[in-house]
Automatic annotation (TrEMBL), chain A:
Its main location: membrane. This is Coatomer subunit epsilon. One of its GO terms (molecular function) is structural molecule activity. Keywords: Cytoplasm, Cytoplasmic vesicle, ER-Golgi transport, Golgi apparatus, Membrane, Protein transport, Transport. Belongs to the COPE family. The coatomer is a cytosolic protein complex that binds to dilysine motifs and reversibly associates with Golgi non-clathrin-coated vesicles, which further mediate biosynthetic protein transport from the ER, via the Golgi up to the trans Golgi network. The coatomer complex is required for budding from Golgi membranes, and is essential for the retrograde Golgi-to-ER transport of dilysine-tagged proteins. It is found in: Cytoplasmic vesicle, COPI-coated vesicle membrane; Golgi apparatus membrane. Coiled coil: none annotated. The lineage of its organism: Eukaryota, Fungi, Dikarya, Ascomycota, Pezizomycotina. Signal peptide: none annotated. Pfam families: Coatomer_E. It comes from Penicillium chermesinum. GO terms for biological process: endoplasmic reticulum to Golgi vesicle-mediated transport; intra-Golgi vesicle-mediated transport; protein transport; retrograde vesicle-mediated transport, Golgi to endoplasmic reticulum.
Automatic annotation (TrEMBL), chain B:
This is Coatomer subunit alpha. It is found in: Cytoplasm; Golgi apparatus membrane; Cytoplasmic vesicle, COPI-coated vesicle membrane. Coiled coil: none annotated. Keywords: Cytoplasm, Cytoplasmic vesicle, ER-Golgi transport, Golgi apparatus, Membrane, Protein transport, Repeat, Transport, WD repeat. PANTHER family: COATOMER (PTHR19876), COATOMER SUBUNIT ALPHA (PTHR19876:SF1).
């Protein structure tokens, strides 16, 4: 039986992880779990630690157990997040060759490969999954990053046939929905709103999702309410800051403070990188023009 | 044959066998006559015995209320008919005459008659007013039936129907037996007419219920309802529905379909045989009498199945149509769906749960021991459509628990199934033992209701989160913010938090029916006869007393009171306008709280309006009402109040209406209205009222009239005295003469100067005194639509420019200016560039998937702003270069980055991967990739309402550097922007022109300020620039400022001619008196010596523009070049350089014109 299914023991920890409640994942009592679920639970906990930025602790924890492919895969992800991308890529590639059937390896090594821009290899590895929703979610995300919304949609719809009730499938569907737009914005909004409003699943992750959906729906005041409330609670969350910048610009409000805050929290954030890139691009492009007569 | 397990019993009494029942038509009362000779009067709503009447000897079988009088009639086995007054609680009189048991008695609905039927085989008609027998022996012959118990609800009806031409037959003739209905094999116990149709229903000892139809000529049996397995004792037609109800000695109440003659429902009692049944004339209520008392019951629930989502209420009507109601618009939708096929025909749906995400409803029906249906609502209400795609199943409760999940509960199997929208079970939960119902419990949770507790259960984690001990919960109401929840049981309301911590509890002796939450977190609940509120701390009170049970949907009145307390006039206004708040309670509430002026808005009744108007000093209304009422009492009160106000016109009217001449005269005296006073004198003489005439004469100081009057009443001594004392000797002598006396014969007291009546110094009558401030509250103003205007004024005051009057003329001037602008602005039309050229080819390998949405934007739009949002800065620059000759992009960089920044959101997904980027669209409804377009921040509206106003403020407050920066920002924002219509394009062009003029004006003035003060050349230039400053087309108020500065500078430097010109222009512009005063003074001075000390390059009478680069005049007819974007004009030598206004475009560059809008694109 799938341990993550509705009847499985790991449902709650799994739900907590995917709704971004990383601290609850760490606090989860795993001693009572059946032996075969111990390892997946541990992997989830380690991944939650990575999500919380505790990469060095994770690396230390798995250093002696690299023989277990699951933990080795965790190590690859930890390396990636810690900034040691090349080592991570190497390890991920090895794991992908040696343990392509291991679902942790599929997902974690797939993540690393995708992060390194090797999308085709990542997809090939993930394609070997057997009913792993995490793999499905990652495939969806890769397709979206490749701007293949059509393929992402197909993947989600296939997964919905066998796992409609899964939180992860719902979230992946919302990812696609926010790309497709129109009525799907509203559906995505409902998914995130549901997560954000339930105390057991409310986290920056779900609030950001809700606010992003509101932004796309053009409901700026609602988005602002959600984001500013969340920013007070989680002032360091980079996605909250990034989306607040977008919101402020849209609403015609100053965003400089938030930009410097983001610079401080996560200088590598896509928003900042994009702006920098476009700023340079602007200068280059503008240099091509000059008035006939300089004044 | 269905049987409903729970009948909706409203009341049960314990007594001996009940043989007769009657409902009071208005009050919640029921009369029960017992086999034991007692008649009971019950309040079935409160469940209390009001009175007992015990004068009959032996069983009492018939009772009836009089429809309007406080009377009832009873007939018993003592052969007697008694008429009672239930207010005085005694028997008024007894009608004797029947020779056997009286079976039934009825009042005639209109005539003063009592009809009685007896075992003596007669029906008698009595006049209860003169207590006589009208129709002594109306023999009612039923051959071959041993038990004769005929009756009818309206005997007279039958007669009228049977003999339409003999309506007056009573009194003279005996009634005629029209039809004999034969069909029952054994004794007939009861017959009843249909309230409208020519139908009769009968019940007999052959256990059958028979339906009969009649025409003018005959009556025949239609059908038989079989089912009772013992004697059928009574039967009747449902007053409003096509149903027959019957009771029998088989201890059942049966409901039959009138049209199909099939059994619809039956209710069984364990021990007691039923003897009689009665229907309430108006409400959905019935009563049945049995061996041990009476029960009052309903056939169907009246609580409409409903659900509220935001401002919408969804509910199911009695016709089983789903409708919605919008609280904001205050309007009911058309029928959305017809649920005719749901459940069984006579069973209304019980609950409704709404899912906004899917726009679906879950409806449960108690039919077939509980069914539910999942139905998607149509997008638009088009009428009662039968739903096509319906999912259904067995359950007593069904509620949505999440966007795509709902829970159904089956009490038989004690199981809750969580189902998805395709109706397949995804999860099964075992609820606590004894669970009776389930409710929504907050996101992802359920509330299980057991007889003693309420349990909160997390569906995801499948675990119980909390439990609270509350017994007998029947309904659950969540507060709007989802933080609190009210648990309603029969007599208790328990308020708990969302985690089931008990906050407060309150007890009601009367049954609690429903509850709802106010936005402010106040619970409003209804009992059988009150609407009440409860605060979170349990403080509660009555809002309103009810005549009929109400199921709460919207707490309007309460909201009103809350708004009143908070002085939230807008909301009150809203409520008054949209709701029908009426009733004495709210008026007295308002009066008590000291808001008579508000109460005034509700009241129609003139007298109350008059009282309220006086109370709040609103004389206009009071006058209006007094006129309407036109009674002395009201005029007196009005006069007194008006006097207190000093409103003497009203006082005058009040006195006139009362014909109060004395007071009127005095009023005219005190207001100094001599004309009217003399008119009063005339009236007095006309009336022959000498006292009044004297009084008026005194008031007027009219001595002649006084003397004349004294003479007329033969008071010669007084006449003489008056004449004498006022020095009218001739008159005095003529009086003496007339009475035949001489002066010697009279001894007069020594006289002093006669007193004169004081006259008012001010002619008050011409106008009212300063009147006591009229009672116009801000509230009334709001009602009169004045508040908006006030707000606008306040807003206008916010701008710190000194004069207010100018603001008002401003609007007019703007209009004028607009016209000018429009005519002067046909820019770019002369250069024709092909449309297609605007589409810049975006490099892309293939269409559709694979390219990002940003690429699509650039491909979908020829507008520069869309390319900027897409990050395609190079193509955006190409477009701007072609459209407006943009060459210098650096100033646009912040705008480019701003637009770009707003184009994407960042959605965190898998840990370790960058967030998913999504593109923010202005086409939020669109999914067609060829029509997707980005959102552009700072739209035209923002520019017009925010930025432009800031610019004006900078101008007023003389912050010119800021102003230039702001207006440049406006130009840059508009250059990279999109609009949604041609009209907006025109508006944008107008704003561009405005910004150009302000920048030009401000830069001219700024240049002047940087000039060194020494030197004749500098002074000359300074004077010129100050003159040019007045040329750009600014708002009038601002132009006045420029003119003022120029005038003063010119005057100070003895350039009187120029100063004169400026002063004249200022005066022509009009506006603030202060400025005009100065202009006038200077004008007057300058006119004495209209010459300039310093010759400057400025001809106030010539037409010219200012070159934006050199700030020198371009006289009309001279060559010039324009900037393709801003339209600023330059001397030809500036062609090819960058525009000085927006600093982006090349002066005189070929350009196709700025594009902000593509028809059909937005």
């Amino acid at each position: 039986m799938d341990p993550f299914s509705a009847e499985g023991e790991l449902l709650n920890i799994h739900t907590a992880f995917h709704s971004g409640q990383y601290q609850s994942v760490l606090d989860f009592e795993t001693a009572a779990l059946s032996p075969e679920n111990q390892l997946p639970a541990r992997v989830l906990k380690l991944r939650a630690q990575i999500a919380l930025g505790q990469t060095s602790e994770v690396l230390a924890a798995v250093s002696s157990e690299e023989d277990t492919p699951d933990l080795a895969a965790v190590k690859a992800l930890a390396q990636l997040v810690a900034g040691d991308a090349d080592a991570a890529e190497q390890l991920a590639q090895d794991l992908a060759e040696n343990y392509p059937e291991n679902s942790s390896v599929q997902f974690l090594a797939g993540t690393v490969l995708q992060a390194q821009g090797r999308s085709e290899e990542a997809l090939a590895l993930l394609g070997k999954h057997q009913g792993s929703l995490e793999a499905v979610a990652l495939i969806v995300q890769i397709h979206l990053q490749q701007n293949r919304t059509d393929l992402a949609l197909k993947e989600v719809q296939a997964a919905k046939r066998w796992a409609q009730d899964s939180l992860l499938v719902n979230i992946a569907e919302s990812w696609v929905g926010l790309r497709v737009g129109g009525e799907k914005y509203q559906s995505a909004f409902y998914v995130y709103e549901e997560l954000a409003s339930a105390p057991s699943t409310s986290a920056p992750l779900s609030i950001v999702g809700q606010a992003v959906a509101e932004l796309h729906l053009g409901r700026l005041p609602e988005a602002e309410a959600a984001l500013s409330a969340a920013l007070e609670k989680y002032p360091e969350d980079s996605e909250l800051i990034a989306n607040s910048i977008v919101l402020n610009v849209l609403a015609g409000k100053p965003s400089a403070d938030l930009e410097s805050k983001l610079q401080q929290v996560q200088p590598s954030h896509a928003l900042l990188a994009d702006i920098q890139e476009k700023s340079d691009f602007f200068d280059t492009a503008a240099a091509k023009y000059a008035p006939k007569v300089s004044s | 044959m269905q049987s409903s397990p729970n009948m909706l019993t409203k009341f049960e009494s314990k007594s001996s066998r009940a043989k007769g029942i009657a409902f009071h038509p208005k009050r919640p009362w029921i009369l029960v006559s017992l086999h034991s000779s007692t008649i009971q009067l019950w309040d079935y709503r409160m469940g209390t015995l009001i009175d007992r009447f015990e004068e009959h000897d032996g069983p009492v079988r018939g009772v009836d209320f009089h429809p309007t009088q406080p009377l009832f009639v009873s007939g018993g086995d003592d052969y007697k008919i008694k008429v009672w007054n239930y207010q005085t609680r005694r028997c008024l009189f007894t009608l004797n005459g029947h020779l056997d048991y009286v079976r039934t008695v009825f009042f005639h609905p209109e005539l003063p008659w009592i009809l009685s039927a007896s075992d003596d085989q007669t029906i008698r008609i009595w006049n209860w007013q003169n207590r006589s027998l009208i129709c002594p022996h109306l023999g009612y012959l039923r051959p071959a039936k041993e038990a004769l118990r005929p009756t009818s609800i309206s005997f007279e009806d039958q007669m009228a129907r049977a003999n339409p031409n003999q309506a007056d037959m009573f009194g003279n003739t005996d009634a005629i037996v029209k039809f004999v209905l034969e069909g029952h094999d054994r004794g007939v116990n009861w017959v009843s007419f249909h309230p409208e149709l020519p139908l009769i229903v009968s019940a007999g000892d052959d256990r059958l219920i028979k339906l009969w139809r009649m025409s003018d000529t005959k009556a025949w049996e239609v059908d038989t309802c079989r089912g009772h397995f013992q004697n059928a004792s009574a039967c009747l037609f449902h007053p409003h529905q096509d149903l027959i109800l019957s009771v029998g000695e088989d201890k059942t109440i049966r409901v039959w379909d009138l049209n199909k003659r099939t059994s619809v429902q039956s209710f069984k009692r364990d021990l007691d045989r039923f003897w009689v049944i009665a229907a309430h004339p108006e409400m959905n209520l019935f009563a049945a009498g049995h061996d041990t008392g009476v029960m009052v019951f309903k056939l169907e629930r009246e609580r409409p199945a409903s659900a509220i989502h935001q401002n919408q209420l969804f509910y199911i009507t009695k016709e089983k149509h789903v409708k919605s109601y919008d609280f904001v618009k205050n309007e009911e939708s058309q029928s959305l769906l017809s649920l005719r096929k749901l459940g069984s025909p006579w069973v209304p749906p019980r609950t409704l749960s709404y899912n906004p995400a899917e726009r679906a409803i879950l409806v449960t029906s108690p039919a077939d021991s509980g069914t539910y249906e999942l139905i998607h609502l149509p997008r638009d209400a088009t009428g009662a459509v039968e739903p096509t795609d319906v999912k259904r199943g067995q359950a007593t409760s069904a509620v949505f628990v999440a966007r795509n999940r709902f829970a159904v509960f089956n009490p038989a199997s004690q199981q809750v199934d969580i189902k998805d929208l395709s109706n397949s079970t995804t999860k099964t939960i075992k609820p606590p033992a004894g669970t009776t119902d389930i409710y929504f419990g907050g996101a992802g949770c359920l509330l299980f209701i057991t007889p003693t507790t309420v349990v909160l259960f997390d569906i995801q984690q499948k675990k119980q989160l909390a439990e609270v001990t509350v017994s007998g919960v029947k309904y659950v109401a969540w507060s709007n913010d989802g933080l609190y929840c009210a648990l309603l049981s029969k007599h208790n309301v328990t308020i708990v938090t969302k985690t089931l911590e008990q906050v407060s509890t309150l007890h009601e002796t009367i049954r609690i029916k429903s509850a709802t939450w106010d936005d402010a977190g106040v619970l409003i609940y209804s009992t059988l006869n009150h609407v009440k509120y409860s605060l979170l701390n349990g403080d509660n009170g009555i809002i309103r007393t009810l005549d009929q049970t109400v199921y709460l949907i919207d707490p309007t009145e309460y909201r009103f009171k809350l708004a009143l307390v908070k002085r939230n006039y807008d909301e009150m206004l809203q409520i008054i306008k949209t709701s029908s708040l009426v009733g004495q309670s709210i008026i007295s509430y308002l009066q008590k709280k000291g808001y008579p002026e508000i109460a005034l808005q509700f009241v129609q009744d003139p007298q109350t309006r008059f009282d309220l108007a006086l109370e709040c000093g609103n004389l206009d209304v009071a006058i209006e009402m007094a006129k309407e009422l036109d009674r002395p009492n009201f005029w007196t009160r009005l006069g007194a109040e008006a006097l207190a106000h000093g409103n003497h016109q009203t006082v005058e009217m009040a006195y006139q209406k009362q014909r109060n001449f004395d007071k009127l005269s005095f009023l005219y005296l005190s207001t100094g209205d001599q004309d009217k006073l003399s008119r009063m004198a005339k009236i007095a003489s006309h009336r022959g009222d000498f006292t009044s005439r004297f009084q008026n004469a005194v008031y007027r100081g009219d001595i002649e009239d006084r003397i004349e009057m004294f003479k007329e009443v033969d008071l010669y001594p007084l006449a003489y005295l008056t004449a004498k004392s006022h020095g009218l000797t001739e008159e005095a002598e003529s009086i003496l003469e007339a009475v035949g006396l001489t002066e010697d014969q009279i001894t007069l007291p020594s006289l002093e100067q006669p007193l004169k009546v004081a006259h008012p110094i001010v002619p008050t009558f011409k106008a009212a005194w300063p009147v006591k401030a009229a009672g116009h509250s801000s509230f009334e103003k709001a009602l009169l639509g004045e508040v908006g205007a006030v707000d606008e004024e306040a807003a206008a005051d916010g701008f710190d420019f000194e004069d207010d009057e100018q603001e008002t003329t401003l609007a007019k001037e703007t209009l004028d200016d607009d016209e000018e602008d429009a005519s002067g602005w046909d820019m770019g039309d002369d250069v024709n560039v092909e449309e297609d050229v605007d589409f810049v080819n975006v490099e892309s390998t293939e269409a559709g998937a694979g390219s990002s949405e940003a690429d699509l934007w650039a491909r979908n739009s020829p507008l520069a702003a869309d390319h900027v949002a897409a990050g395609s800065f190079d193509t955006a620059m190409q477009l701007l270069n072609r459209q407006v000759g943009a060459v210098h992009f650096a100033p646009l960089k912040p705008r480019f980055l701003e637009v770009f920044k707003a184009s994407k959101t960042y959605l965190p997904a898998t840990v370790g991967l960058p967030p998913l980027v999504n593109y923010v669209r202005r086409t939020t409804e669109e999914t067609d990739s060829r029509k997707l377009l980005p959102i552009i921040p700072r739209d035209l509206e923002t520019v017009a309402t925010v930025d432009l106003q800031e610019g004006y403020t900078a101008m007023r407050s003389n912050k010119l550097e800021d102003g230039v920066r702001i207006f440049k920002g406006i130009l840059h924002t508009l250059l990279v922007n999109t609009v949604s219509s041609e009209a907006e394009v025109a508006q944008a062009q107008k704003i561009i022109a405005t910004a150009r003029e302000y920048i030009l004006a401000m830069t001219i003035e700024l240049e002047r300020r940087t000039l060194p003060t020494e030197g004749q050349d500098n002074l000359k230039r300074s004077l010129e620039l100050s003159a040019y400053f007045t040329i750009p087309k600014l708002e009038v108020a601002h132009r006045q400022l420029a003119l003022m500065a120029a005038m003063k500078l010119a005057f100070a430097n003895k350039n009187y001619n120029s100063a004169l010109g400026f002063a004249s222009r200022m005066l022509a512009n009009g506006g603030s008196a202060k400025l005009l005063e100065q202009a006038k003074k200077i004008k007057a001075q300058c006119e004495r010596n209209p010459s300039d000390a310093i010759d400057i390059d400025f001809d106030q009478f010539a037409e010219f523009d200012i070159c934006a680069a050199s700030h020198t005049p371009i006289f009309s007819g001279s060559p010039f070049v324009t900037d393709p974007f801003t339209g600023a004009k330059y001397h030809p030598q500036y062609k090819g350089s960058v525009d000085r206004i927006a600093e982006v475009t090349e002066i005189g560059a070929p350009a196709s014109g700025l594009r902000l809008f593509v028809p059909g694109q937005f």
